[in-house]
Every structure is written in structure tokens, then in C-alpha cells.
Amino acid sequence: MVKLEMEVGGMPDNETDMINPDFAMVAHAMGYPGKNVHNPEEVEQAIKECLAYDGPYLLNIFTNPNALALPPKIELQQVLGMTKSMGQLMLGGKLQEAMDTVKSNYKHLKDIL
Asked: Where is the Thiamine pyrophosphate enzyme TPP-binding domain (predicted)?
């Protein structure tokens, strides 16, 4: 969300990428069950397992960092800010990152047009 807020504000993200520890392993080390989920088709079963467990359970679900969370109403300033940040990314040599964002979100164009 920090990355998205920066981009909507017209700034290319800076230092928002994280390489997290294996939180499921951390939970196991503390004596609790934990699970990492990387695939969308595994989410439903993982949630069922988590809710069926009697006690604390860490469920870590990985999401697409380039997926945009669309607000109920999109303001012109948000569109301009996102356009500006994508332009700055491309001019800064991060064309692939800008393209990944477009690829992850082009399906939403019909919702905003």
C-alpha cells in the first residue's frame, strides 16, 4: 500500500520492496502452526485449515505487489499522479516494473472508463 500511495502521489516507489522472512517458519519456531500461501487456488483450503485449528495460527498469503486497489471514486489527481510516477519509472530505467503494473491491472480499465 505504501508503494501504491507513492505512485498515486506522482512519485516512483523508493525502497518499498521487501524480502520478508519466512513467517510460517517463524511461527513454527515459536511453537505455533503457520503456512505460506503463494497460489490463489490454495487460499480457500488454507483459510479452512486456519479456522479449523483450535488456537493461534499464522496464515501468510502472498499477493501481487503490482495489483492496484481501486478506490470507490477515482479522482483526476490520482490518475495524473499514477501517470507521472509510471513515466518517471520508465525514464529511470524501470520499464519492466511499469509494464508489470500495466499487465497486472489492464483488466480494470473497463471499470474506470
From this structure: 7-61
